[in-house]
């Protein structure tokens, strides 16, 4: 089907009738996924206009929820566009008498990107350890939909997914299309009691742009501004509509998290900076992202092993089968502190340079900073409590949070331990953990049952003299287990413990 016929008046009218029929056929609430991009804008616009054509009584048949997930590390220009759009939607829905509610969703604080990277020390995401996608994007929307299903029994998700996006996307959509028990509604493969409606599933990117240029946005945004944003994010600054099959399309532009290290380079941000001199203020973001995800020239993989502990998060050792070297775990203390300082420096720099329409630009929230501090002091036993000093050094003002009082030890005692430990950070960590556990148990007046076990656990974490010593011990341990003839079930249980919470790849 050609682009011209796909977005012709007859086709749009057929879609209007389909949307209206589905909307009025039951009381199951709708959830429209909105990212601010062209596909989700098209679907929401189609739904909005179709419902608006109904009578005032029919419009109120049931709720339509628009949800947009803010990962808190969205590309700033796109984030500002989406936040403005959500406000306009809510205002326009009230003015036009539509049962539409727009919601901005965010990850739980413990799942936030910086809390995991800087707080817990998770290494920068990569294809072998994609810890970010579910925490930042999937979980917030799933929580919203699950709550809606709990209240209403079912929910219908209206999405802008298209088969032309990729071969794998088409295959997945076709699979669930074969499982339809209601016309136009596919089962949701990940959430029970929810259905998926994809109005533009057979459209191409050029169909989408043709529609957006022909039909005015009903909640007050400009589709021409949306196209301009896509144009700026393409390397050649071109965004043609339809010429022939060889004509490039704006549909190839991809917006996402500005910190994303799952790709080798952020081409959309690079293009924005290249195509618009007013976007040069984003250069520090690009440079910091490249620093976090710097690739090794020989392997093509992120080069950060020198900044990471050779132990897992729980202190255990896991070896590469090929050479029996340890698989590195979380970032060390020095790296986490460095990343926090650099992030605050970048935030301060772009806050001074960003245009006024990029409102309240904040790379890391106060809530995230407080959670990071809590993890460092209470979980990692780093009683020097270094975060407030880092914050004050960069931001030139005191950190707005009360002091931790679980231990009487502070920076001076930390420096004494450092001098005693030399360059052995594992030994240093063990000493600080033992002291902090003891002080915490005393200050909180805890019953001493279990304290011995916790002290023993920290001693075992500091059992190794070096990475080589840890590898040798693990090899010996594996040989002993082999002699003891571990059952397959035992081996599976062993592997089950190597989950992503350990911060390993």
Features of this protein?
mainly alpha, 20 helices, 50% helix, 505 residues, single chain, Rossmann fold, 6-stranded mixed beta sheet, 2 domains
Quickly describe the structure.
The protein contains 20 helices and six strands. By secondary structure, the protein is mainly alpha-helical.
Explain what the structure shows:
The chain is mainly α. It folds into 2 domains: 3-231, HUPs (Rossmann fold, 3-Layer(aba) Sandwich); 305-502, no CATH class. It has 20 helices and 6 strands. A 6-stranded mixed sheet has the order 3-2-1-4-6-5, sandwiched between helices. Strand 5 and strand 6 (194-197) form a beta hairpin. Helix 2 crosses helix 3 (38-52) and helix 13 (333-353) packs parallel to helix 15. The longest helix is centred in the first third of the chain and has 21 residues, at 76-96.
**CATH third-level topology of the largest domain:** Rossmann fold
In total, the number of domains comes to 2
Tell me the series of helices and strands, N- to C-terminal: HHEHHEHEHHEHEEHHHHHHHHHHHH
Given the helix and strand composition, which structural class is it? mainly alpha
**Strand composition percent:** 5-15%
By CATH reckoning, the class of the largest domain would read Alpha Beta
Q: Based on the coordinates given, report the CATH architecture of the largest domain.
A: 3-Layer(aba) Sandwich
Gyration radius over CA: 27 Å
Number of strands: 6
First-last Cα distance = 45 Å
Helix content: 40-55%
Lateral arrangement of strands in the main beta sheet: 3-2-1-4-6-5
Low-confidence stretches: 1-5, 236-253, 488-505
Counting H and I runs of at least 4 residues, what is the number of helices? 20
Name the CATH superfamily assignment of the largest domain: HUPs
Q: Which geometry do the CA atoms define?
A: elongated
Instruction: Please summarize the sheet with the most strands.
Output: 6 strands, mixed
Average pLDDT: 85
